[in-house]
């Protein structure tokens, strides 16, 4: 009887398939496909992006100036400080849909399709109830969850610096400070608002 060695990529694929069938999903995910640390708002995740947000964002951007698809993706990333990076798979189909609805029209500029709003597209922008989606990122980043996350990262970085170069006494004092901070944070959660 002869044995054939299974290539590593086949073995890895089989492990992923079996883990998924057992309900474990990808490593780091819970059985429902999410992360085990709770909702995005509690773990420093990004603000929720809805299906219509790409559409609304494109209409708002094109109301400022004509752009091609890559410019739209780059502008959205820039306006959200890199927190929202829409993929070509969401931007280009949305542009195609807007073109089908005759809200945008492509024009060739430097060998690229540049999209501009049509008259009906401008009317659609005027009729939008929703503010530009990137404004939600600004609200969340400085004051809300992202500010909290940033403060946590800074405290963690300081603790790691003590761990790398601090004396035994400094390490013990830092552990005490972190333990007291943890207690106070839970106390804040326990308070009625």
Description:
This protein has 193 residues and is mainly alpha-helical. Among the domains are: 51-133, Winged helix-like DNA-binding domain superfamily/Winged helix DNA-binding domain (Arc Repressor Mutant, subunit A, Orthogonal Bundle), CATH 1.10.10.10; 145-190, no CATH class. 59% of the residues lie in helices and 6% in strands. A two-stranded antiparallel ribbon has the order 1-2. α2 (51-64) packs across α5 and α3 packs across α4. The protein is elongated and about 70 Å long. The model is unreliable at 22-44 (pLDDT under 50).
Strand/helix succession: HHHHEEHHHH
- Write out the strand line-up for the largest beta sheet, numbering strands in chain order: 1-2
Q: From the 3D coordinates, which CATH architecture of the domain at 51-133 would you assign?
A: Orthogonal Bundle
Number of helices: 8
- How many strands? 2
| Helix-residue proportion | 55-70%
Question: What would a concise description of this structure say?
Answer:
With 193 residues, this protein is mainly alpha-helical. It has helices at 8-21, 51-64, 69-79, 88-100, 119-126, 134-142, 145-165, 168-190; strands at residues 104-109, 112-117. Helices cover 59% and strands 6% of the residues.
């Amino acid at each position: 009887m002869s044995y054939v060695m299974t290539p590593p990529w086949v073995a890895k694929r089989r492990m992923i398939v079996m883990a998924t069938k057992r309900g474990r999903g990808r490593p780091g995910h819970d059985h429902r496909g999410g992360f085990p640390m709770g909702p995005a708002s509690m773990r420093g995740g990004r603000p929720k992006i809805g299906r219509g947000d790409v559409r609304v964002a494109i209409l708002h951007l094109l109301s400022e100036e004509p752009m091609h698809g890559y410019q739209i993706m780059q502008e959205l990333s820039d306006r959200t400080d890199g927190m929202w990076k829409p993929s070509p798979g969401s931007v280009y189909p949305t542009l195609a849909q807007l073109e089908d609805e005759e809200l945008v029209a492509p024009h060739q500029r430097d060998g690229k399709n540049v999209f501009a709003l049509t008259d009906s597209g401008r009317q659609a922008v005027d009729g939008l109830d929703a503010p530009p989606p990137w404004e939600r990122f600004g609200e969340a980043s400085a004051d809300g969850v992202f500010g909290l996350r940033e403060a946590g990262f800074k405290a963690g970085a300081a603790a790691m610096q003590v761990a790398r170069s601090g004396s035994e006494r400094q390490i013990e004092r830092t552990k005490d400070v972190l333990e007291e901070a943890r207690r106070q944070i839970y106390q804040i959660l326990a308070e009625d608002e």
